[in-house]
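chain below, 187 aa
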Amino acid sequence: MNATLDLLHTRRSVPPIQLAGPGPSPEELDAILAAAARVPDHGKLAPWRFVLIEGEGRERIGRVIADTYRADHPEADAARLALEAKRLAHAPLVIAVVSRAGPHAKIPDWEQVLSAGAVAMNLIVAANALGFRTAWLTEWMAYDRRILDALGLAPTERLAGFVHVGRAEQVPPDRPRPALAEIVARY
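prediction:
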């Protein structure tokens, strides 16, 4: 089988808590982001962008996440707040994929949203091709406007997800995948 298909057939998500450094070098990160941006993009709108969360930025946004959680859950204990503060701090790099879908005379919003999803998947494949492991997650923070504001998202932007990038000692076993007979129809 060709190497690209082999990668696609064997790729696994790794829980962020199992991801460690080192993260991508600047050259590797540029290669990953360049590959991510090569997706179908009807109208050449680039209806997506990236926010890189790395280094001390992981702890800064972690404090915002923990404070936001505490505001909504005043009963939260120290252990829970510590968990919230570390959500984006396990992997050496987290890439927030931002969807900038918006009204357009010819390009439906749906196509723009799908393009952001394709960017996230290309990002994952490119990172894995360079030997990194990834996890694409949203969790509650991706839908909380206070967190999105802290990350610099415009009011019209949404988060397609956080892609955690790092190295892993072990790759989890594969999960059950749907049988093709159950998901393929012929016309």
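The chain has seven helices and four strands. Residues 40 and 114 are 9 Å apart (CA to CA).
thats it, cya
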